[in-house]
Design a protein that fits this description.
The protein is of the alpha+beta class. Helix content is about 25%, strand content about 45%. The protein is built from three helices and six strands; from the N terminus they run ααββαββββ. A six-stranded mixed β-sheet has the order 2-1-6-5-4-3. Strand 5 and strand 6 form a beta hairpin. The longest helix has 17 residues. It is globular, with a radius of gyration of 15 Å. It starts with 11 loop residues before the first helix and ends in an 8-residue tail after the last strand. Pfam families: DUF1348.
Length: about 140
Amino acid sequence: MEIRNPIPPFSLETALEKVQLAEDAWNSQDPIRVSLAYTIDTEWRNRSEFINGRENVVKFLSSKWQRELNYKLKKELWAFTGNRIAVRFEYEFHDIQGQWFRAYGNENWEFDDNGLMRRRFACINDLAIKEQERHIV
């Protein structure tokens, strides 16, 4: 049985820890490492894409980080209760042509009893920026 600490119900301390663990994993840009935080049958909505299952998470993230170069993410705890956490985030990246972007958004997370994320719903907006306008370096 897979367990991914911290497990719910979350306190302020454990919710903050869960958010930092997610930020660290995503900043590794390692799709397999990231996917291990999710249930085998995880459900995602990422922008207008619906992704189901850990295997598809790996495919999605592999493709994402081939397009989004020099990706750097910052997550912030927004709210938590029981087995749910809400975060706001921003990340920056550039495309193959060198155009930089900042993406802003919110995520709603739901965890199983073992601390694996079973549902992730993300709303994301992109803004083209100049390299010197980056916040996250």
